[in-house]
């Protein structure tokens, strides 16, 4: 297991420019000791893609949910920076959940932040964010469990890409046939988020519950 990339040379020489971060939250009356969830969208997308359904649903099941909007024009390093800084500001070690290219932001963030767990939803492998194909992909800090979810009917992310992404973390993808790329906005949006929350409850049981 490699050492987490807490601070790299580029952070000293060309630090990421500060930027206002839009974070939307939905909080339960009692979080039952569950870790908070931080949802990370693809570049160019806002927190609203998660706020429409997934944030409130997670809160209804006792999870504090936060969604981060991608900064306009931000490159991969800036988006990873924003994700790590936002996660570090939350009250407990956080579960990172990224969608599309946002899942690749989360994958990079795992090398710098000791997340309780991570979920890569429909991780989109593009030349600009093709981190899975590189042997230097940061490993999760500690023993962070990672789940890959997607759909075999996604026109943007093929099943083979889901298999490759999951294999990096020693597992197999959890698939939802009949759904498109935007799992959180499809008519059947509840099925993936319920499966993710069930997986978290199994992987991260709360003592006394």
List keywords for this structure.
Rossmann fold, 14% strand, disordered N terminus, alpha/beta, 209 residues
Descriptive report:
The protein has one domain: 3-Layer(aba) Sandwich (Rossmann fold). It contains seven helices and seven strands. It has helices at 9-13, 48-51, 54-60, 76-89, 101-109, 159-168, 190-203, and strands at residues 23-26, 37-40, 65-68, 95-99, 117-121, 146-150, 174-175. Strands 1-3-2-4-5-6-7 form a seven-stranded mixed sheet, sandwiched between helices. The chain is globular and about 40 Å long. Residues 1-6 have low confidence and may be disordered.
Brief write-up:
It contains seven helices and seven strands.
When the domains are counted, the total is 1
Category from helices, strands and their pairing: alpha/beta
Largest sheet, spatial ordering of strands: 1-3-2-4-5-6-7
In the CATH hierarchy, what is the class? Answer: Alpha Beta
Helicity range of the residues?
Answer: 25-40%
CATH-level-2 architecture: 3-Layer(aba) Sandwich
General shape: globular
What is the gyration radius calculated from CA atoms?
A: 16 Å
Number of helices: 7
Distance between the termini: 31 Å
**Strand/helix succession:** HEEHHEHEHEEHEH
Number of strands: 7
- Within the CATH hierarchy, at the fold level, what is the topology? Rossmann fold
């Amino acid at each position: 297991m490699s050492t987490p990339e807490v601070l790299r040379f580029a952070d000293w020489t060309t630090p990421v420019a500060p930027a206002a971060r839009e974070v939307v939250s939905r909080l339960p009356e009692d979080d039952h000791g569950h870790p908070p969830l931080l949802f990370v969208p693809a570049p160019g997308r806002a927190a609203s893609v998660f706020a429409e359904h997934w944030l409130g649903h997670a809160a209804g099941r006792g999870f504090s949910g936060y969604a981060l909007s991608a900064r306009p024009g931000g490159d991969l390093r800036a988006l990873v920076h924003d994700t790590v800084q936002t996660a570090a500001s939350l009250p407990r070690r956080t579960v990172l959940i990224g969608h599309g290219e946002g899942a690749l932001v989360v994958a990079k963030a795992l090398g710098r932040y000791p997340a309780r767990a991570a979920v890569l939803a429909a991780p989109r492998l593009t030349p600009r964010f093709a981190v899975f194909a590189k042997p230097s992909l940061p490993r999760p800090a500690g023993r962070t469990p990672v789940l890959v979810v997607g759909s075999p009917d996604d026109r943007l992310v093929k099943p083979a890409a889901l298999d490759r992404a999951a294999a990096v973390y020693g597992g197999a993808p959890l698939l939802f046939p009949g759904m498109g790329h935007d799992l959180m906005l499809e008519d059947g949006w509840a099925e993936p988020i319920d499966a993710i929350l069930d997986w978290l409850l199994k992987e991260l049981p709360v003592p006394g519950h």
